[in-house]
Amino acid sequence: METAQSTGGKAAAGAADSDDDDDEEAGDMEDFLDSGMLDANDPGTLLPTTVKTPSQSAEEEGIEQTRTYDLHITYDKYYQTPRLWLIGYNESRKPLSVEQMYEDFSADHAKKTITMESHPHVSGPPMASIHPCRHAEVMKKIIQTVADGGRELDVHNYLVIFLKFVQAVIPTIEYDYTRNFSF
Fold first, then answer.
1. What is the DSSP string of the chain?
2. What is the pTM assigned to this prediction?
3. What pLDDT is attached to residue 58?
């Protein structure tokens, strides 16, 4: 307790010293306004009306349209494993149709392992759900491999490995690969 008080006193003294170093008089706000620094017509300001929205002509010009996905992970009590839910959006942040979402998934898994279902906790349009029937088997093998090496897989690493495993089903969605695993 005593250390914290003395540290706080030093910090307060340091702040007071830095205020003493600034001997210049504070600028007048009217002078600042008169200088034109707050002009409404600042040429460096980007107005929302000047931003182009994605259009069909952009696709014709070869500009790649990007899609984003929100990922939800729930726990599937029956399979006792995480279950992944995805909802996609276009560049204008409008939800993708079911057909558009299926375009982003592996053809081998679309409408088989990946189905469109209502999320158990979030209302709204159907979300893509990756059926968890094989998740537990694969993740148990990974956990066993780690355990055989004399280590334990913590929750954070488990979820990252789970997402990388699921990426086989969703090859068009990229995850951060900079995470280093040492088992």
1. -HHHHHHHHHHHHHHHHHHHH--SPPPPHHHHHHTTTT-TT-TTPPPGGGSPPP-HHHHHTTPPPP-EEEEEEEEETTTTEEEEEEEEE-TTSPBPPHHHHHHTS-TTTBTTTEEEE--SS--SS-EEEE-TTTHHHHHHHHHHHHHHTT----HHHHHHHHHHHHTTT-TTS----------
2. 0.56
3. 52
Instruction: Compare 149 and 6 and report the one with higher pLDDT.
Output: 149
Whose tokens are 């968890």? That residue is 132
Is it the case that residue 170 has pLDDT exceeding 90? no
- Residues forming the active site: 133
| Distance between CA atoms of residues 157 and 179, nearest Å | 9
User: Mean pLDDT over residues 147-161, rounded?
Assistant: 85
Averaged pLDDT for residues 112-129: 89
Burial 25-35 (b: 16+ CB within 10 A, else e): eeeeeeeeeee
| 146 in Cβ contact with 136 (< 8 Å) | no
First to last CA, the chain: 41
Q: ∠ CA(71), CA(115), CA(134), 5° rounding?
A: 80
Radius of gyration (Cα) for the chain, nearest Å? Answer: 27
Mean pLDDT in residue range 62-74: 83
Q: In what order do the strands lie in the sheet with 68-76?
A: 68-76, 81-89, 127-130, 114-117
